[in-house]
């Protein structure tokens, strides 16, 4: 799904997880979400889509908002030498449907990533017992 060669999954070069689809990424984001607040996180991946470090929290917001600027997302991506990123945030309401702001932010991050040579692979929104991948839904990029 994320255009990484399946050989990366078959022949593990090291112990870092390979992220090939949203289901591979979701478990890495969920443990860091504070209860009752919206949190925006980013996972940094190398050229073979292996997780470089555990997802980093960019912003912790309120019940229904989190302030995110591309500068904070890509500063850390550059620092970690990421070739690609996956971003995620939770909706404390429990419904993972994206808002217009979620889609606009995804488009903005995608454009910034293009300029920097760091691919935005997906924006995953988590709800109470489910998640939604903007990549799979064809929204935002």
For this entry, give a set of tags:
five-stranded mixed β-sheet; 5 helices; 141 residues; globular; alpha+beta; Cytidine Deaminase, domain 2
Helix/strand order, N-terminal first: HHEEHEHEEH
- CATH architecture grouping: 3-Layer(aba) Sandwich
The CATH topology comes to Cytidine Deaminase, domain 2
Mean pLDDT: 88
Structural class: alpha+beta
Provide the spatial order of strands within the biggest beta sheet: 2-1-3-4-5
CATH class: Alpha Beta
Number of helices: 5
Strand content: 15-25%
Q: Give a count of the beta strands, DSSP E runs of length 2 or more.
A: 5
Based on CA inertia axes, which overall geometry fits?
Answer: globular
Head-to-tail CA distance between termini: 14 Å
Main sheet attributes: strand count, strand direction, barrel closure: 5 strands, mixed
CA radius of gyration is 14 Å
Number of domains: 1
Low-confidence stretches: none
Helix content: 25-40%
CATH superfamily: Cytidine Deaminase, domain 2
């Amino acid at each position: 799904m994320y255009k990484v060669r399946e050989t990366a999954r078959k022949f593990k070069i090291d112990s870092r997880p390979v992220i090939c689809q949203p289901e591979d990424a979701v478990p890495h984001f969920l443990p860091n979400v504070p209860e009752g607040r919206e949190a925006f996180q980013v996972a940094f991946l190398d050229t073979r889509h292996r997780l470089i470090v555990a997802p980093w929290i960019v912003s912790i917001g309120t019940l229904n908002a989190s302030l995110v600027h591309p500068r904070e997302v890509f500063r850390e991506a550059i620092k970690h030498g990421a070739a690609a990123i996956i971003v995620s945030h939770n909706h404390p309401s429990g419904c993972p449907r994206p808002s217009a702001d979620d889609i606009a932010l995804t488009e903005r991050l995608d454009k910034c990533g293009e300029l920097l040579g760091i691919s935005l692979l997906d924006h995953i929104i988590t709800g109470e017992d489910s998640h939604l991948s903007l990549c799979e839904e064809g929204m935002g990029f």
